[in-house]
Design a protein that fits this description.
The complex is a heterodimer of chains A (about 700) and B (about 300).
Chain A: E1 3-11, H1 16-36, E2 48-52, E3 55-63, E4 70-78, H2 79-82, H3 91-99, E5 108-112, E6 115-124, H4 129-142, E7 150-151, E8 159-160, E9 164-171, E10 174-175, E11 179-180, E12 183-184, E13 188-189, E14 200-201, H5 208-214, H6 221-238, E15 242-243, H7 247-254, E16 260-266, H8 276-286, E17 290-293, E18 299-308, H9 315-343, E19 359-361, E20 365-366, H10 367-385, H11 389-398, H12 406-410, H13 417-425, H14 430-437, H15 453-472, H16 486-499, H17 506-515, H18 524-546, H19 551-560, H20 565-581, H21 583-602, H22 618-640, H23 650-660, H24 662-671, H25 679-695
Antiparallel strand pairs in A: 1-3, 1-9, 2-3, 4-6, 5-6, 7-8, 9-10, 11-12, 13-14, 15-17, 16-18, 17-18, 19-20
Chain B: H1 10-23, E1 27-28, H2 43-46, E2 55-64, E3 80-89, H3 95-105, E4 115-119, E5 122-124, E6 129-138, E7 141-152, E8 155-156, E9 162-167, H4 168-176, E10 185-188, E11 194-196, H5 197-215, H6 218-244, H7 252-271, H8 277-305
Parallel strand pairs in B: 1-2
Antiparallel strand pairs in B: 2-3, 3-9, 4-6, 5-6, 6-7, 7-8, 7-9, 10-11
The chains are: A alpha+beta (about 700), B alpha+beta (about 300).
Amino acid sequence: MNHALLIELGSEEIPARMVAGLARQFAEQVAARLATAGLIAAPAEAPKVFWTPRRLAALFPFVAPQQPNREEEQIGPPARLAFTAENAATPQALSFAAKFGASAADLYRVSTPKGDYVAVRRRHIGMALSSLLGLLLPEAFAALNLPKAMQWQGPSGARFVRPLRWLLVMHGATVLPVELAGLTSGGQTRGHRHSNDDHVTIDNANGYIDTLKEHDVIVDWAEREAMLRRQLSESAAHAGWSWRPDEALLATLRDLTENPAVVLGTFAPAYLELPSEVLVTVMRDHQKYFALNDSQGHLCPGFLAVTDVAGEPREDRVARIRHGHERVLRARFNDARFFWQTDRKRTLHSRVDDLGHVTFHAKLGDYGAKTRRNLRLAHWLASAWKAETKVVALAAQLAKCDLTTELVKEFTELQGKIGGLYAAAEGLGDGVRDAIYFQYEPLTTESPAPPNQEAAAVGVADKLDTLAGMFLVQEIPTGSRDPFALRRQANGVIRTLLERDLALDLNQALETALGAYGPDQGDHQATRLGLQQFFLERLEYYLREVGGHAVDSVRAVLTVSANDPLDARRRVEAVTTCRREAASAFAGAAAAMKRIRNIVRKENWTTREWSADLLRDPAEQALAEKLRALPVEHARWQQRATVAGGDPTPYQHQLLQVAATGPVLDQFFTAVRVNDDDPRLRANRLGLLAFAAHELSRVADFSEIVFNED
Amino acid sequence: MPTQSATPTYQQLMLQLQSFWAQQGCILQLPLDMEVGAGTMAPETFLRVLGPEPYRVAYLQPSRRPADGRYGENPNRLYKHTQFQVILKPPPGNIQDLYLESLRAIGIAWDQHDIKFEEDNWESPTLGAWGVGWQVMLDGLEITQFTYFQQCGGIDLNPIAAELTYGMERIAAFLQDVESIYDIVWTRTTEGHAVTYRDVRWQDELQMSIYNFEAADVERLWRHFELYEAECADLLAVAPAAELSGGSRVSLLGAYELCLKCSHLFNLLDARGAISVTERVGIIQRVRTLAVGIARAWVARQVATALPA
């Protein structure tokens, strides 16, 4: 009879960030093997996956107790060797049969494309579920990808993220004996730690969820999460407040508890004098509390803690737990307040020299040196963007000073923001404040780039200097390691340029950044090339994934140039629009461009030289004339076109021009023989084609684009 | 608010914790009588976790972190705090239950509180050691670091050891429900007067903060460091040769004490702001070389003599 199969792996507390992934992995690995073994009927109903910090479980709804029996045809020697003239079995045939425990009577003839052979039918008796699990489960377990594994039974023992403590395997109401990771399975699980019940019997696989619920363990993550949301809302509403959403924190707490219970705590309103950034960072990052808003959206003197307790919620216990949490938070807030007050006894400016004692990187020196480099680069950017250079200079000089403050030493994740807040407190003005406050943005995909050009100059300068220096000393990110978050920094540069519409000659910027380092500090040339490639990859990603442009459009545009992200975006937007609105017009030109490219490559033709004197055929003269006219036409068009008039953008116009050369190119290929016998004519035609490819690829390289003819 | 009516004094807390672990078969060692930053650095942990011999030990350990000094003015931070260090090698299968029972033994009815085991892995670059484990949170307060050591001195451990490190001041403040560590009642006199943590330790915190941040002679600290480092390196250099010649007159423990001196001197120099940005990595590496060298020599001797070291 098919029954539900329940497998539960009991563990010491698995880190919250890992447990969901591990539970799903385990269920998938087991499901795949059960299906291969024929124990689950196809199409298989997906297993239910459960987890808490102390257990991973999978419930497979209908699993057979035994593999189906299987018959397999085993082919042996050719029939002419297997049977005598009298149709009796030869010794060869008999020894073949014996290999599979068969006799002469079991032999039969079978026709194959290669001729007649002898065969026997081999019967495989299906293995019982428990025996199969003995093989399957260790395999599934070994296939797990463990983020950080440990051993606890010796070097040849099992490896997992924490020591495994029990195993439960049940098929319907039957306990199946299986060995895994040094554990022998049973039919008992453990309830909540608080109930101290290590012997909770599961009567039936399907009773898993309910039985554990009776013992204060909510195994279903969705249920735990729903409980949490409900309790958070109710507790906050009870005080007339609402909780500040924080999905990441919610998921963490969901996976940090077996039976979550929310407790509302308060703190003295006087602490609200501290910046909300500081208060929220303490609550969220250090204590895993949710912050609360009042009806006006202001921070409240309260917090929501998520506890993990079992049994009846008793008021005295809740009060005791609340008291403990409030005490810890008070101590942390007192520290923060002490730092906030002590730090402000000095100006940011007085801290500039102290930056000489703060490491940036062992090979790149201290933050004093970095500040000088940043200052130079930020000034260069500010001039290019016509931003307020005085604001930029002051902000760049003071931007790192908060690293010497007690508040940032304690709450390093607030660097930049604290500097901005101290700048505001000193009355240095909004421009300086914003530039320092937002210098590290965008920090996440959701947060925006720095809000103005001055802030952008400071932020981009800092990132470019970091990238230049790190690449120079070979701290280059790999697929799995990027300890200095260089990808994020490069992405930040690109997003800042694109979100604030700032043009930048990347090559020049990188040279300027590298210019601040001595020639003996690394290979400047190689570094610049490496960084260009790095930025190319980031820009490609951005235009594709965030901009939503087709991968070949992006490639076509970046092949021409990736040196100015803003310009690249304008070009790819033009390509996307033209492809959408005038695809057929472009298809012809694109095909011709590919053809030109192939010819030029095949002949390895490197020059774009051609002479009008050597043009013989009208078709090649027409092409030359068309190419010569393009820039003139475009300039004339630009004088007339206005953006408000709904005309295409300049790049779109240039692309339309390219599309319009389609017929001329086609005519050229129809009428003109490129490989003329006269070498001068041949050279001229190749030169003309190479010239055409160049002229027609100013916006995008059409040979990269795949047009699907409708 | 504690969950028992008879709140232990600091002294009673120490006695209860020692008593509990003594009952689990732990050797109650004395604290290392040298400057260390944590119980982990004492030979009773660092060297005992190496090699195959089972071991159980528990000891209080005053732990010095010069940079954490606050002149006795911060109610929660100390230059020298007290750890209670437990090593169980190999860790028993019910170690988490044992730990929770130890909490009960010191008056924390843990099942009436919010207890969480939150991921916190430990690594010491100076000792070439790392492990995985948790910080144990009690109503939002971290009270214990619970670590399964995997490597020490760059060597894979077999069997592994579990380390439980309790923060004594924090636990006492929690149990006695005081806002400042200095208000902890250390003990009572025969007349019943409370002797506080302040009475016992405040001068130490104040005067040592002055020494660590202002008075320590940087040039002499460097000279001490270099002398200890050289002597330790010399002892280590002769260690393999001595083993080969069948001699066992090598003092690895002597070398290790010199290494600990270097480590503490590094902390002092750091607190004095005397270590430059570019020097820092290099110095940590120098201390690590000594520590790892000692660990390797220790293991080699165990293998050579097939006796507990």
